[in-house]
DNA sequence: AGATTTACGTCAGCCATGTTGACGCTTATG
DNA sequence: CATAAGCGTCAACATGGCTGACGTAAATCT
């Protein structure tokens, strides 16, 4: 194993506080790296669970957002995922074939297809959520409330302001009945 | 454009502080979502720059880590990227064909291939870094020093403890002369 | 010294997930 | 009634993962 080889002069246990001139290269790189490895590790467990069912990350993302906003139309999901409808259609086709997701005709606008999870879909999404949750809960718990707020603040700052409302809308309790355009 | 449709009851401008019981589902989901969108947006600019040269994200990751630890052997890079040698070899092949990366025989262990960037490789890596840097700098600046520390702390907590030394070693100034196993 | 292991290279094929372009249908809307 | 919007679908292609198998040089163990 080469694992140990990256270790040289060794590393303090706790993160060092951001310096007053916290915009220098080293601190930018640190953020980039932690974001990359943090994200990778967060989803690692879910990937395994997904693979066991013959599904991939793309399926998880769709399941996740549909769970988050039941009744969401396809167009909104496309905006969130930022992929083409052809890519999404493959994924949704798989999920529907497995009866994890169903479509219903929009009530206000009959051109729309509203997405929601079946009981089986919701159950799977819950399992996948738990894979992510364990890691996040531990990280939040060790870091403390203050750090979590900082974590949210920095990440929000990485998102272009015009995209933030879309993302913050996910956090509203109410399931989406889509507003008229 | 359906963008505006995800907007419903609307969103406060600044992030809300983590609640005392900050381990509940809503706050976990918020972290998951911000991490996903934050990461996606961070790399978006670099992706465009890469595509303009006919390269992909995989090439960037290799360039990035080689820039970070010049002289790093292949095995260490494999550990960081967590992919197979076959996947990496395609990427490194491309980078060498374009004379962005060179290999030299290991000094201590002649079986190893030490990786480093050519001048052109370093120049490209710098351009790509700047794509990421702009976003991160803005996010750090708006969030403030305290938030940045929290951001680091939570992300570090997402990484399994046994992997942290490898990642923290990236942040040591010194270029790697690989330690004997 | 000889056997074994390590570090790396390589060929071949497969899979997941993204892309572009084109065309069609139903429903809303001006 | 014409046009636009929301969605479905076919076809082809690119990227970047994967497995499996096999080879070679150098280090290490006995």
Question: What do you see in this structure?
Answer:
With about 180 residues, chain A is mainly alpha-helical. Chain A contains 7 helices and 3 strands; from the N terminus they run H-H-E-H-H-E-E-H-H-H. In chain A, a hairpin with a 7-residue loop joins strand 2 (about 100-105) and strand 3. In chain A, helix 1 (about 25-50) runs antiparallel to helix 5, helix 2 (about 55-70) packs across helix 4 and helix 2 crosses helix 5. The longest helix of chain A has 28 residues, at about 25-50. At the A-B interface, helix 1, helix 3, helix 5, helix 6 and helix 7 of A face helix 1, helix 3, helix 5, helix 6 and helix 7 of B. The first copy, chain A, binds a DNA duplex (30 and 30 nucleotides) through helix 4.
Short description:
Two copies of one chain form a homodimer. By secondary structure, chain A is mainly α.
Spatial shape of chain A? globular
Biggest sheet features of chain A: 3 strands, antiparallel
What percentage of the residues of chain A does DSSP assign to strands (E)?
Answer: 5-15%
Kindly report the CATH topology of chain A. Arc Repressor Mutant, subunit A
């Amino acid at each position: 194993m080469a694992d140990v080889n990256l270790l040289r002069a060794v590393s303090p246990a706790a993160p060092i506080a951001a310096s007053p001139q916290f915009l220098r290269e080293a601190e930018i790189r640190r953020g980039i790296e932690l974001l990359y490895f943090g994200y990778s590790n967060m989803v690692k467990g879910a990937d395994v669970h997904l693979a066991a069912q013959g599904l991939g990350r793309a399926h998880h993302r769709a399941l996740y957002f549909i769970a988050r906003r039941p009744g969401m139309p396809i167009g909104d999901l496309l905006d969130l995922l930022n992929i083409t409808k052809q890519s999404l259609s493959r994924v949704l086709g798989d999920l529907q074939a497995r009866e994890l997701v169903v479509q219903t005709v929009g009530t206000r606008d009959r051109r729309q297809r509203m997405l929601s999870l079946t009981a089986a879909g919701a159950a799977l999404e819950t399992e996948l959520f738990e894979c992510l949750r364990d890691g996040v809960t531990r990280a939040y718990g060790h870091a403390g409330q203050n750090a979590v707020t900082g974590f949210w603040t920095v990440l929000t700052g990485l998102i272009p302001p015009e995209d933030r409302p879309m993302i913050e809308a996910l956090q509203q309790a109410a399931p989406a009945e889509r507003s008229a355009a």
